[in-house]
## 1
Amino acid sequence: MKSLLSIALASLCASVLNAAIKTELVEYKHGDVTLEGALVYDDAVKGPRPGVLVVHQWKGLSDYEKKRAAMLAELGYAAFCVDIYGKGIRPPTPKEASAEAGKYKSNRTLLRERVNAGLSAFHKQSVADPKRIAAIGYCFGGTAAIELARSGADVAGVVSFHGALDSPRPDDGKNIKCKVLALHGADDPFVPAKDIEAFESEMRSASVDWQLVKYGGAVHSFTDWNADGSLPGAKYQEKADKRSWEEMKGFFNEVLK
C-alpha cells in the first residue's frame, strides 16, 4: 500500500513538474494580410477553459503582452495575443508607432475587423471555450477592446487598460452586448475630459453595463513596466498596476464564471 502511494505521489509530482505555460505562434489572415498572434496556456489544464483575448499597445505585439498572457494562463485562462498590424510589423520608435496606430484609430471599421479576425482565430483553438471569452487591451489595445465591443462581438466582457475613451461613432454603443470595464489613469494627459464624457454618455445612452475606474496619480501606460517616463505623460505606477489587475480579476470572476 505504501509502495502504491509512493508511486502515485511520484507520478503526480512528475506531472506537475512537466506542466508548463506554453506559448505557440499562430498565423491567421484578414483578407490578404497575414497576421501572427500568440496562444498562451497552461498545458496542465485539460480541456477547453475560459479565454482572454489580449490586444497589444501601439508598438505591436511584444514580450509585454505575452507576459500578461502568461499571467492570465497562470490564473487558468487560455490567452490569445492578437496582431492588429500584421506579421513582422513592430514599429520600434514612438514616431513610427504613432503613425502605425493612427492608421487604425482613424479607421475604426478596419480596427474592428482586425480585432475580430483575432477573435475568430482564437475560436479555432481547442484550449479555449468559445462561449466564455473576454478581451483586454493596453493603450492602443484598450481602444481596440472597446471597439470589439462596439462591433457587436459575442464576448462576455472587455477591459481597457489606459486606452483612449473617445466615442467617434456614439450610436454604435447600441451594438454592445457585453459588460465593459475601463481602467483609467486619473491624470492621463492623453485622454481629455471631453473624451471621458463622450464615453460615459455613449455607455449610458446605450444602457450598457459599464464601469469606469480612475486611479489617482496615475498617468498613461501605468501598467507598462517598460514605461520609464521618457515619454512625457506615460509612466509605470506599481500601485495602479496591481489594483487594476485585481479589478480585472474580479470582473472576470463575474463574466467568465
## 2
Amino acid sequence: MKKLIVFIILLIVLVLWGFGVIFPDAGYVLVILGQKTVETSLWFACFSVLAVAFAWWLATRFVHISWSIAQRLTDFFVFGSMERASKRAASGLIDFLSGDWLQARKKLLRTATKVESPLVNYLAAARASFELGDQEEAVKILSDAQKKYVHFAVPIGVAQAKMELSNGRYEQAKTILVGLQQKAPKHPIVINALREFYETRQDWLALNDIFPQVKKYKLCSVAETINMESSIMVGQLQLASDSAARAPLEDRLLLLRKVWSKIPSFQQRVPRVVAAYAQALIHNLQDQEAEVVLRKTLSKTWDDSLINLYGILRVTDIADTIRTAEAWLKYYPQNAALLRALGRLSLRNQLWGLARDYFQRSLAIHKNAETFAELARLLHNLGDTAKSIEVYQAALQLSAPALPDLPQPMKTY
C-alpha cells in the first residue's frame, strides 16, 4: 500500500512536470529512429516512461490475479469444499502408508492449504519426496511450509534433521537439532530427536547431558529409560577404559574407581554395567580388582556374560579363584558358561586334564563354537592331533550354514 501511494505521488509530480507546471524550461528529449525523429520535453518523456511502466505493472497484476483466480477455481472444481479436500488428503495419507509416494505427494500438496492440519500434509509430502530420491524437493517442501507456518518451525526442523540423519549427513542433522535446542531448549520433540541422534552416534556424554530431560518428559517407557541409562554408563566406562590406558599403570585403578563411584548404585548392580567395568579393569591390567567386583556381583546376581569374564582373569591366586567357581557349580551344575570358565581357569593353573573334562562337560550341555575351539586347541597341544581335528570340524559345522544336499564323490579309502 505504501509503495502504491509513493508511486501515485511520483506520477502526479511527473504529470505536472510533463505539462510544464514545474520547471517549464527543463529541456527536451530527441529520439532518432532510422530516418524518423521524435522531439518532446524532458518531463513529458519521463511521464511517458512512467506511464508505460505503470501499464506494464497493471498487466502483470492482471495476469497474476487471473492466474490465482483460475487456480482457485480449478482447486474448487477438483477438490471442492474443505470436506472434499479432507477426504482427498486422507486418500493421500493412505497412498503414503501404502508406499505410493508419487500419488501421496501430489494429493497432500494440493490439499495442504485446505485442511485443518496442514503440517501433516507437508511432513508426509516431504517424506514421500525423500523416499522418491528427490531430496531437494523434500527440503523445498519443508522450507516452504516453514515460511508459511512459522509456529511449525520445531516439528519441521526435526523432520529435516531426521531426513539428513537417514541420508548419513550426521553433521547437518546435528547442526539443525542443536539450533532447535537453542531456540526451544525444553521442547520434548527436540529432546527426543536429540536422544535418537545421540543413541545412533553412540555419543554417550552428550546423551548423558540431556538424559535428565528425557526422564522428566517421560519420552520413553520405564524399561527403555533404564536401558538407556545403562547404555550411557557402559559408554562412559568404555571411554574411561581408553583414557586410563594412556595413564601410568599405577594410576589406572584410581582413575577407574573414580568413574565407577559416580555411577548410580542401582546401575552398579546391572550385569552389563558391571561387565563393562570389569572389562575396563581387565583391559588396564587390574584383574585382581575385577575378580572382587565379579565375585560380589555373581554371588547375588547370576549372569553368563560375567562368568565368561571371570574365566579369563589373570589373578595371583588362581587356585582360590577356581575354588570360588567350583562353589558356584554346586548351585549351577548345568551351566555351560560356568563349566567353560572353569576349563579356562584350569588352563591358567596348568591342570590340563581337568580343563579338558570341563570343556567336554560344557559341550555336552550346550554345543558352542568357542568351547569347541578351546577343547581343540588343548587336544592339539596335548598331542592328540586326530581328536583335535575332529573337534575343529565339529566347530566348523556348528558355525557354518547348513549345506544343500548335493552329490559327492565316493570314498576310495
## 3
Amino acid sequence: MKILYEDANILAIDKPSGILAHSDKTESKETILDWAQRKYPKAELAHRLDRETSGVMLLAKNQKTHEFLKKQFQNREVKKIYHAIVTGKIKKDREIINKPIGRSPSDFRRRLAGRGARGEMREAITEYKVLKRFEAPVSKNFSSCALSGVPVGTLGDKNFQKLSPIKFTYLEISPKTGRTHQIRVHLKYINHPVVCDSLYNPNTPCLKGISRLALHAKSIEFKNLKGQTIKVESPLPPEFKKVIK
C-alpha cells in the first residue's frame, strides 16, 4: 500500500481499485483497515471509498484523531476532488447537481436520486466540471449491449466495430456532501453514469482499456491536529491516462 502522507496521528494512502475499505463479512480478503491495524492497532477509517474506487484515503491512528477528522467531514470542511470518466457527451461545462438521495425500492445495495427513491431522503450536492470530451472504442467486456439491445454473442466482430467509437466525458468532481455512492448516483441521475459501474451502469459497454469503475479520488484537503492545512494528491491511474491522452 503506497503511503501518500503520514504524521504522528494521520495516515493517507493510495487505495487501489478492488480492495474493500473495511470488512463486509462476505469474504476473507484483507481490507484497508486490516492492513492499517497490523501496524497501528487503534487505527480507524476517517472516511470510506467504494471497493472499486481508487485514490487517496485518510485513516486516523487513534480515537482522538478519528473524532477530530470526523468533525471536519461532518462540518463539510474537508475538500475532496474526484476524477471520473462517464458515458456520453455532457453538454454543460459546469453544473451543480443538488438532488436528495434515498434508497432504491428494488435493490438494497443501490441508492437513488429522484422519482422512486424510498426511505429518508438525504441532502446531496455534487459539483462537476468537464475536463475533456472524447470518442473512443468500447470494450467487449459487458453483459449486454445497450447500444443495440442485442445480447452478447450475437454481435460478430464486424457488427461490433459499427458500435465504436462512442462518446465519453472526463470530469473533475467536487462532492459537497458525503452520501453513500453519491457521485455514482448523481451521474446516473443525469444520464451520464460512470464507465464500468457494474451496480449503476451494468448494461452499457465499458470504455476500451478500462476494466474497473472509472472513478478516482484525486485529492483531499484537511487540517491536521496542529491546525495546518494539508492537501494530499493521488497520481492518476495509468489506465485513465491511456484513454484520455
